[in-house]
Amino acid sequence: MAGTKNNTLKLKFDTARDYAPAPESKSAATIQPRYDLFINGKFEKPLSKKYFATINPATEEKLSEVADANAADVDRAVVAARQAYNKTWKNMPAKERGKYIFRIARIMQERARELAVIETLDGGKPIRESRDFDIPTAANHFFYYAGWADKLEYAFPNRQTNPLGVAGQIIPWNFPLLMAAWKIAPALATGNTVVLKPAETTPLTALTLAEIIREADLPPGVVNIITGAGETGSALVNHKDIDKVAFTGSTEVGKIIQRAIAGTNKKATLELGGKAANIIFDDAPLDQAVEGVINGIFFNQGHVCCAGSRLYVQESVYKQVLRKLKDRLETLIVGDPMDKNTDIGAINSKQQLANIHKYLKIGQQEGAEMYQPSGVLPKKGFFCAPTIFTNVAQSSRISQEEIFGPVLTIQTFRTDDEVIEKANNSPYGLSAGVWTDKGSKIFNLTTKLRAGVVWANTYNQFDPTSPFGGYKESGYGREGGLHGLTPYVNLI
Amino acid sequence: MATKTIIKKSALKTEKQSSNGTAKRLEILKTYKIYVGGKFPRTESGRFYEAVNKNGDVLANVCLGSRKDFRDAVVAARTAFGDWSTRAAFNRGQILYRIAEMLEGRKSQFVEELMKQDSSQAEAQNEVETAIDRLIYYAGCTDKYQALFSSVNPVASSHFNFSVPEPTGVVAVIATQNSSLLGLVSMIAPAIAGGNTVVVLASYQKPLCAITFAEVLNSSDVPGGVVNILTGKPAELAIYFADHMDVNAIIYGEADTATKKMIQEKASLNMKRVVWYDGMDWTSPAGQSPYLIMNTQEIKTTWHPIENIGGAKAGY
Predict the structure, then answer these.
(1) What pLDDT, on a 0 to 100 scale, did the predictor assign at position A11?
(2) Which neighbouring-strand residues pair with A314?
(3) Which CATH architecture has domain A26-272+471-491?
(4) Nearest chain A Cα distance for residue B103, angstroms
(5) What are the contacts of B143-151 at 24+ separation with CB within 8 A?
(6) DSSP A317
(7) Chain A (184-243) residues lying within 8 Å, Cβ to Cβ, of chain B
(8) Which residues in chain A are closer than 8 Å to B151, comparing Cβ atoms?
(9) What residue spans define the domains of chain A?
(10) A476 contacts in B (CB within 8 Å)?
(11) Residues 18 to 57 of B: which have CB under 8 A from any A CB?
């Protein structure tokens, strides 16, 4: 049998997407028609008297409306957090603090299915991901940091810790509940109080978390959750009485925040954008690597700051990898996020879809070749086919700028040094991936790639015990693990 | 006024010569130049200023460093980073120890310079000795802070996962103004112990020890470009230290609030890490610590799968 001919065989995928629908039931979740601001342990009407709608990006239908907090509302929340800090939280025995956080984790686990459904309805991510990844990981994050509360003296050798005070926290729309957990859990464990603002397109799981926090009987004001858009966030960052800003989002906004807090004593943790290199060497197990690349860029529609959006393939296996990738693309199911068969759900918002389309156009104008599989996209809602670009230059905008969508660029390389140079040639440094069977090569790469998280022969793995955060313009500070405590304490 | 003091200095220097009529040996005065990429160039700007002590004595004509000098120094520091950051921790420790040895050997020269710059003999002696001991402290720290601040993370999935500190990169340092040697050494040592390369702006008022310290570095097997030392005006150069796009972190040793605000604003251009050492008493125990090394470190987390072999449930 002539092996070369086999390689040119075109696989048929006519029935690859023919699965019977397996939709998750919406009845698992109760969504209120309207949500107020969670301040001082109660849901309070906004002083702004304004509300805005949050929609399901897969159907464009309105799910609910949430309060639009203005500067006066932000002030109320910060005042509540400050009072809670002074009166109850900072003096509470650490052991008791920890027990409250454990409680939150437990109730999240109990209400996991509800949270998963709300997450998928509000944000557009596949139910499989919110059910199996977002919600359990968020609950586990609280569980993990709860245990740190009364062990901080072991975390920092030869030092004692003091909390910072009130933390203003702003989170993005890609992992709404998980990001809330990443922010709130370490802040509470170290004795800080919190004002959290979820993203304007995905406020609902954070507001459900507010209900959970109330259910856990956390002292009023220790966690305040206020909704709004950029202006609300800006009012929070600029509020005189916060001691700490924790932000996850774009590098552009991260820079604005760093400028805004200049000249103040506010501390900051910034977890920003990325443009991660995912590198396949010719000795890698190619099927596993291709699966890792798919997971690396199409997980959560590519709305992942650490997405492996730049693929580098060693020249000798380029054709093989490209064929396998294209074949795998054919089998990805794009569609209803509530369907348990769906691989790629809805793009989070109309605005983000427009942004992705802008980059698809730029890529083609720059001379790269665009490839999309043959499937049909749903007519309603915001959807984008998984896309790969070949013939991409290192200087192309699509290989330099973060797209935050299901778009992969592919380049080739010959030597280790060449690919290290190319991978590091980015202002970002959040994450990277390496695929090779050779251990010494893995460590050569993982030590030379300038990125905060490096996955070798795997990709997009997360765990509460594992620190996450970037080098260079991907921000600073770590979230998760022992190192995730540092940004919330003063050492004395 | 400046001319007068120069005359005063020359008078001082020629006094010995003429005291007993016979021509004594004429002292060779040192030219204080900047230190970039392991070499001692003059500032490309050709500018200078007079370092003056409290008595008004002109101690030297010192390079008034420029933006271009800084940019050259950053290129040198970036070039040196790859080699220095991948040196064995042991080797970096040996080199830091060597710096201390060289400084010890030239102790009297530094004491003399400090005394010229208004220190009493006791103060000068103490400052030099503390600086030497500080280098020894960090020489013994280069292969230990990793163990203190690393972690193996027990993730719930079948992966081996660990986090280790790595150097941030090129670090720009605006040194403490009121210290000629100890502040400078205390800010350089933890940064290079951790594998970073640095560009330092020395104290404007007390620049002499910084350049003499560069000579010590130059004879201590510190590769060229790992430490670059400029002299000049902080008020003029701070902005370039803060806004250069190939600098990864900036350390500021003073407390000026307007400058701090400017530094943080400019640092946001490329997300520089900003470290303040205002109010730091370098003679106090807080003046040295593995935590100071961590101020210019990043934490890298590495994941790798662990194979689960089917059926291999047997114990030992």
Answers:
(1) 73
(2) A413
(3) 3-Layer(aba) Sandwich (3.40)
(4) 30
(5) B143/B89, B143/B90, B143/B93, B144/B290, B145/B193, B145/B194, B145/B290, B145/B293, B145/B294, B145/B297, B146/B89, B148/A157, B148/B290, B149/B290, B149/B294, B149/B297, B149/B299, B151/A467, B151/A481, B151/A482, B151/A483
(6) G
(7) none
(8) 467, 481-483
(9) 26-272+471-491, 274-456
(10) 271, 273, 298
(11) none
- Return the pLDDT at A113: 97
- Could you tell me which chain B residue has the CA closest to the CA of A445? B302
Q: Could you report the predicted ipTM of this complex, rounded to two decimals?
A: 0.95
| Closest residue in chain A to residue B169, using alpha carbons only | A472
Neighboring chain A residues of B271 at a CB cutoff of 8 Å: 251, 254-255, 258, 270, 272, 472-476
The CATH code belonging to domain B34-281 is 3.40.605.10
> Do B272 and B247 meet the contact criterion of CB atoms below 8 Å apart?
yes
Provide, rounded to the nearest whole percent, the portion of chain B with pLDDT above 90. Answer: 88
pLDDT of residue B23: 79
Residue of A24, A114, A200, A305 with catalytic role: A305
**In angstroms, rounded to a whole number, what is the distance separating the alpha carbons of residues A256 and B6?**
50
pLDDT value, residue A13: 74
The highest-level CATH class for domain A274-456 is alpha beta
Q: Is the pLDDT of residue B45 over 70?
A: yes
Question: How does pLDDT run across B228-243, given as a tens digit for each residue?
Answer: 999 999 999 999 999 9
Active site annotation includes A305:
yes
Categorize the per-residue pLDDT at B13 as very low, low, confident or very high, splitting at 50, 70 and 90: very low
pLDDT band of B15, cuts 50, 70, 90: very low
**Which of residues 157 through 176 in chain B touch A, CB cutoff 8 A?**
157, 159, 161, 163, 166, 168-169
**Number of neighbouring beta carbons within 10 Å of residue A145:** 28
B155 contacts chain A (CB < 8 A): yes
Domain boundaries along the sequence of chain B: 34-281
Q: Cα–Cα distance between B250 and B272 in angstroms, integer?
A: 7
Q: Which residue, A265, A266, A263, is CA-closest to A247? A: A266
- A274-456 and A26-272+471-491 share a CATH fold: no
Q: Do B305 and A458 touch (CB under 8 A)?
A: yes
By C-alpha distance, the chain A residue nearest B258 is A263
- Helix (H/G/I), strand (E/B), else coil: A308: coil
The pLDDT averaged over each successive group of 10 residues in chain A (492 residues) is: 53 75 92 98 98 98 98 98 97 97 98 98 98 98 98 95 98 98 98 98 98 98 98 98 98 96 96 98 97 98 97 98 96 96 97 98 98 93 98 97 98 98 97 97 97 98 98 97 98 93
Q: How confident is the model at residue B311 (pLDDT cuts 50, 70, 90)?
A: low
B303 in contact with A, Cβ within 8 Å: yes
Catalytic residue among A129, A200, A271, A473: A271
Selected for mutation to probe chain A from B84, B302, B307, B308 (highest A CB count within 10 Å) is B302
